[in-house]
Amino acid sequence: MQKVKVLQVCAWVLLLWRCWGVLGYPLDCKDEQGSIISCTSISLEKLLDRVIQHAELIYHVSEESCTLFEEMFVPFTMRTQQNRARNTCITKAFPIPGSKSEIQKISDKWLLHSVLMLVQSWIEPLVYLQKTLDHYDGAADTILNKTKWVTNKLSSLEQGIVELIRKMLDEGLLAVEHQQTLTRFDVQPEVVESILRDYAVLTCFKKDAHKMEVFLKLLKCRHTDKMSCYIS
């Protein structure tokens, strides 16, 4: 089988710098009457709840997308590739704690900025994924539509996280440099390799989406019930 020629585009950037471009467009929220208002106008508690709701929905849809793709395209004997995918996730090199004990120890600042790193790192790969899914023979529109929905929700979540940073930390962004590695393909991959590649993207995103949700719920717990916060 012809090997896929992969061009690794690596650039050291201030990924968090990107969020300044969305500060003027904060996440829309609803007041008690259901009217749309700017999230800069609502309380910190309601903003945090709104952001957590976004993260929960994103994780739920990512699970559905991954399962649907697996059932449609990935033979059972190939599903062990999921372990391999976890070792090649684009966010693996990011300075984000992975173990429960490490996560419990990090500050509120790092919880928020870690979520922001994850959110921003996935927007572009999901756009590329939409393009590849669009070329699958017999691919259900459901998978493609879910991917488009998640991409839009990630942009909204990004705006909400930026606003949380302003409200909770009363400061600008952390000046943290890290490597963002995007995998692009300059040749048409073989069918099996294409499936495994997209399966790896969906699997990695599901893992990171769960991490976003966990981080935000831990953050809320610290501000409401500090004595009994734990990661399940």
UniProtKB/TrEMBL annotation:
<dbReference type="InterPro" id="IPR009079">
    <property type="entry name" value="4_helix_cytokine-like_core"/>
</dbReference>
<protein>
    <submittedName>
        <fullName>Somatolactin</fullName>
    </submittedName>
</protein>
<keyword id="KW-0732">Signal</keyword>
<dbReference type="Pfam" id="PF00103">
    <property type="entry name" value="Hormone_1"/>
</dbReference>
<keyword id="KW-1015">Disulfide bond</keyword>
<keyword id="KW-0964">Secreted</keyword>
<feature type="signal peptide">
    <location>
        <begin position="1"/>
        <end position="24"/>
    </location>
</feature>
<dbReference type="GO" id="GO:0045927">
    <property type="term" value="P:positive regulation of growth"/>
</dbReference>
<dbReference type="GO" id="GO:0031667">
    <property type="term" value="P:response to nutrient levels"/>
</dbReference>
<dbReference type="InterPro" id="IPR018116">
    <property type="entry name" value="Somatotropin_CS"/>
</dbReference>
<dbReference type="GO" id="GO:0060396">
    <property type="term" value="P:growth hormone receptor signaling pathway"/>
</dbReference>
<comment type="similarity">
    <text>Belongs to the somatotropin/prolactin family.</text>
</comment>
<dbReference type="GO" id="GO:0005131">
    <property type="term" value="F:growth hormone receptor binding"/>
</dbReference>
<dbReference type="GO" id="GO:0048513">
    <property type="term" value="P:animal organ development"/>
</dbReference>
<dbReference type="GO" id="GO:0005615">
    <property type="term" value="C:extracellular space"/>
</dbReference>
<dbReference type="InterPro" id="IPR001400">
    <property type="entry name" value="Somatotropin/Prolactin"/>
</dbReference>
<dbReference type="GO" id="GO:0070186">
    <property type="term" value="F:growth hormone activity"/>
</dbReference>
<dbReference type="GO" id="GO:0046427">
    <property type="term" value="P:positive regulation of receptor signaling pathway via JAK-STAT"/>
</dbReference>
<keyword id="KW-0372">Hormone</keyword>
